[in-house]
Design a protein that fits this description.
CATH superfamily of the largest domain: Domain of unknown function (DUF427)
Number of strands: 23
CATH class of the largest domain: Mainly Beta
Oligomer: single chain
Number of helices: 2
Order of helices and strands: HEEEEEEEEEEHEEEEEEEEEEEEE
């Protein structure tokens, strides 16, 4: 086996990429066609991007489905060298795959994920479990813990949630999220929207927007009706973006955190 497949720690490249091999069996499909079937995937972190992606040895990719990109983009993906269009069952997906110029990853191909960018492969699996949006980061934890803290949420001076039975979600790299029982949230002050997001750690979330006045971003309240088993404690509970409203925990008003959600809520 090569050093690439046996390395056990993060490595860097001159282009600013971080990478490490994974022992997971990863498959990627477009509709019912398996495009990637890899026992030697590599996790890659691009500079300034908080989540990883996978790159795969060429031998574990259906290269017969790839064509040199007709309209390769510029300024996307760190040091991207070659882009490919993917042709499956008569459909062509522009710039669905690419390579990195980094010497360590020269023989690997990365793919877009449909649930993340709106293009690329639409079904991904680690072992027999389907995953969504992006690979799960092995250096990240997500813990959902029941609590008895007193947590309140205010929007434009109105208390919209008040509980002594929250579930706290501690997720590496993000502020603590406070999940409320529905009976402790003034849902009558919110309007459900058709917006949904997917998370590889928690599942698919539905959203509500503030129905009152004020400069309040949409889709600031969400819930997971069927969360993944690891965070089953949040099922049906409701959470808010700390970044755009006021949360008080045990009498202490929290500062609004600054994250990538601060300027662009979903």
């Amino acid at each position: 086996m090569t050093a690439l497949t046996t390395a056990e720690s993060l490595r860097g490249t001159p282009e600013g990429l971080l990478w490490e091999p994974s022992d997971r069996w990863v498959r990627g499909r477009k509709d019912k066609v398996t495009v990637v079937d890899s026992h030697h995937p590599v996790l890659v972190w691009e500079p300034g991007v908080p989540v990883p992606l996978y790159a795969f040895p060429r031998a574990e990719v259906r290269e017969d489905l790839l064509r040199p990109a007709k309209n390769p983009p510029t300024g996307t993906h760190t040091g991207s060298q070659i882009f490919y269009d993917l042709e499956v069952d008569g459909e062509s997906l522009e710039n669905a795959a690419w390579t990195f110029p980094a010497a360590d990853l020269a023989d690997h191909i990365a793919f877009e994920w449909f649930r993340r960018t709106g293009k690329g492969l639409d079904h991904w699996y680690e072992e027999e479990e389907e995953i969504f949006v992006h690979p799960r980061d092995p250096h990240k934890r997500v813990d959902a813990i029941a609590s008895s803290r007193h947590v309140q949420v205010e929007i434009e001076g109105t208390v919209v949630a008040d509980t002594h039975n929250p579930v706290l979600v501690f997720e590496t790299g993000l502020p603590t999220r406070y999940y409320f029982p529905r009976e402790d949230v003034r849902l009558d002050l919110f309007t459900p929207t058709d917006h949904h997001t997917g998370c590889p750690y928690k599942g698919t979330a539905a959203y509500w927007s503030w129905a009152g006045e004020g400069d309040v971003p949409p889709n600031l309240l969400w819930s997971y009706a069927a969360p993944l088993p690891a965070v089953g404690a949040i099922q049906g509970l409701l959470a808010f973006y700390n970044e755009v409203l006021d949360i008080t925990v045990d009498g202490e008003r929290l500062e609004r955190p600054v994250t990538h959600f601060s300027k662009k809520l979903p």
